[in-house]
Write a structure and sequence with these properties.
The protein is α+β, with helices and mostly antiparallel strands and 172 residues long. It contains three helices and nine strands; from the N terminus they run βαβαβββαββββ. Strands 5, 6, 7, 8 and 9 form a five-stranded mixed beta sheet that branches.
């Protein structure tokens, strides 16, 4: 790839109900709805050849959300797709989103009190490159795996001149 890479602009997620998706990201992450498009008026070739979607699907709505100071989240609601279950983390194509928060324990308590399905934790990595990483996974109402994490410093920082993105960081 040539040219300068600035960073991750957005992550697109297909949800079964866009209003539910918006409400979830607003409640959990304080997301702000920046804009939405409504239905797309495109043909089957566009769906298959430009989006890699089923030619028989349609886009009911698309919305961009701003979540804090990082990468934006783009939600799609499609119609015409039969298998709508999210992939497990262990499956090819499985994924999760991680949001950095100031206190993973307080965030986990707030999410749990709000009825969000939490997996075990919060957890802390004690050794290795992720030493100091506090995290917990949880599920969106449609099954997507998400994570919140907090940390002051990670173990890899003692052995590498490179740094992962951090909230509030001005230099990589």
């Amino acid at each position: 790839m040539t040219g300068k890479i600035y960073g991750m602009h957005h992550i697109g997620i297909t949800v079964p109900d866009i209003e539910e998706g918006i409400a979830f990201f607003q409640a959990v992450f304080g997301a702000i709805e920046v804009f939405r498009t409504g239905p797309f008026d495109v043909d089957q070739d566009f769906m298959a050849n430009k989006l890699g979607a089923s030619a028989h699907s349609t886009i009911r709505d698309l919305v961009f959300l701003r979540c804090g100071e990082g990468t934006s989240v783009e939600l799609f609601e499609y119609s015409g797709e039969e298998d709508s279950r999210p992939r497990r983390s262990s499956e090819v194509g499985g994924m999760h989103l991680c949001f950095e928060v100031d206190d993973v324990h307080a965030c986990a308590e707030r999410l749990s009190a709000a009825g969000v399905e939490m997996l075990d934790g919060p957890n802390r990595v004690e050794a290795g490159p992720l030493a100091g990483f506090n995290w917990i996974y949880f599920r969106a109402p449609w099954g997507l795996i998400l994570e919140v994490a907090s940390f002051d410093k990670l173990g890899y920082e003692d052995n590498s001149p490179h740094r992962l993105w951090r909230a509030g960081q001005t230099k990589p």
